[in-house]
Amino acid sequence: MEKLIDERREIYLEQLFTLLRQKSISAQNIGILETATMLRGMMEDIGINARLIETDGHPVVYGEVIRHPGAFTLLIYGHYDVQPAELADGWNSPPFEPTIRDGRIYCRGAGDNKGQLMAQLMAVKTYLDVRHSLPINVKFMFEGEEESGSPNLAVFVEQHKELLACDLVYTSDGPLHETGLPMVVLGVRGMLYVELSCQTSKWDNHSGNKGNIVPNPAMRLIQLLASMRDGEDGRVLIDGFYDNVQEPTEAERAHLRQLPYDNAQAGRQAGYEELDMDAETYYRRLMYEPTLNICGFSSGYSGEGSKTIIPAKATVKMDMRLVAGQDPDDIYQKLCAHVARHAPGVEVRHLGDMKPSRTPVHHPLVQQVIAAVESAYRQPPVVAPALGGSLPDYVWTQILGVPSVLVPYANSDEANHSPNENIGVENFVNGIRCACHVIDRIGR
Question: Which strands form 422-424's sheet, in the order they lie side by side?
Fold first, then answer.
């Protein structure tokens, strides 16, 4: 298979370029149906039995290659939608015209997620052309709403449990470790996103004429926010916030200490060179500890010069990253209770949530995937218990009730969601090899 992948490198790249040129911006409903139809056709050309399935939003592209109804079944998940992109945003080449520079493919969706999705498909094509059949059943579920928060994914999975029934879910999304080492990720933090707003008057008032008379809504929100978090150690002070947090075991903490970590490099990548942490602290905070974060604060006048007013309204947007054991609904209720107790009259709006998810590292299927990735890349992967970010991984572990692994193929500086998003040509080709190794290893 290695030889055939090398021989077909240009052919596989052109297949990827065809998909990349087709816009599929879910937030703006641009090119979604056209992309889903194109993807279905590509899958059918490979020999995958594929079809579109409607949802309350954008369609799912579903496909399968069934060796035998009772055989081991791998479900490959990905998404065909992308973030918006305009040349004026700072792109060095048209964002929907794939361009190779210095060994990288620059295009919106190159890394997130069309490049990684196509690597899975080209792996199946390679395997079928060499061996004429797969050693396991493989199902594919590609959604068109991931970049819009996957609002219909959980309902779709719940309604199609029998169709999606499998033994393991395999996802390739996101970047390799910042060292360039391959990764196997076994979970994600969940998320709760809210907006708090406070209005104290019908309009802005003169800060002298009405000072000490009309209350300031920005001050009220600032005082409320200060009541939510300890200023010394950052611990969240909302009652019951940590009730169900699962602390890492000593074995898990020992694993964190062995993960690759360069404090100076981590600081540079964050633009925060004052960072001073050891590996265990860094990874524990990212993977095992929840957060409470202010994403944005809006109130009053922030233009040039001065404007002496008491603003009428203030708004803050917040997200909380949640770890295994926490439930977004439970945390939302506790947040609302805290707001009602400390700042009656402040309105709380629920803007979105996602449950945390975790697959144990000692699971035998996880060990097989780790071995396959090591074989493909010829070096042991970094095994991360969880990502700091959030993906809808819980639909597999909690709704389907199966283990789930994330094996990213894209380079660590893929610039997903940013201008000049890219994937290395070798990253794409190595992704094809990796998927072949995973299918082969599980089959054996």
Answer: 99-101, 104-106, 422-424
